[in-house]
Design a protein that fits this description.
This protein is an alpha+beta fold. Helices cover 41% and strands 17% of the residues. It has five helices and four strands. It has a four-stranded mixed β-sheet with strand order 1-2-4-3, sandwiched between helices. A hairpin with a 3-residue loop joins strand 1 and strand 2. The longest helix has 18 residues. The protein is globular and about 40 Å long.
Length: 140
């Protein structure tokens, strides 16, 4: 079954590339375009052929897909975006790719709230923005 938030068709990618805007980082490129329905955001992942070997390309794709799922709740709804791994992405760790992706989202102004920016900067598995320091209350 096709996941509803993933771009799969060639014409979907073409629409984002041709009609959208882009931001480029050292390891990643982000292409994005507003959707007509303004519902949830959809994403697609590609990796440059300059990343040699199918195993390495697939590893980078898995990491990029995970980043998209991680950040999707914090991205403004109503966008299609394509995240492209560049040749340096194969050498990057999850943290490096996450940092680059976050910078691209901030530059494109696609993150929904300031609270999300703070949470994502401190934790890779952010679940909610409303959390205050419960640990300091437990110690008292």
């Amino acid at each position: 079954m096709r996941h509803p938030l993933i771009l799969k068709k060639n014409y979907e990618f073409d629409r984002v590339y041709k009609k959208g805007k882009s931001e480029h980082g050292a390891e990643l490129s982000l292409f994005y375009v507003p959707r007509k329905d303004k519902g949830s955001s959809h994403f697609g992942v590609t990796v440059s052929r300059k990343v040699r070997g199918a195993v390495q390309r697939n590893r980078v794709k898995r990491v990029l897909r995970e980043l998209c799922y991680l950040y999707l709740p914090y991205i403004k709804p109503g966008y299609d975006f394509v995240l492209t791994g560049r040749s340096l992405a194969e050498r990057g760790s999850f943290k490096h790719l996450q940092r680059d992706f976050e910078k691209l989202l901030l530059r494109a102004k696609l993150l929904e709230t300031d609270c999300a920016n703070e949470r994502l900067a401190t934790s890779k598995a952010a679940t909610s923005c409303d959390k205050t320091s419960d640990s300091s209350r437990d110690k008292a």
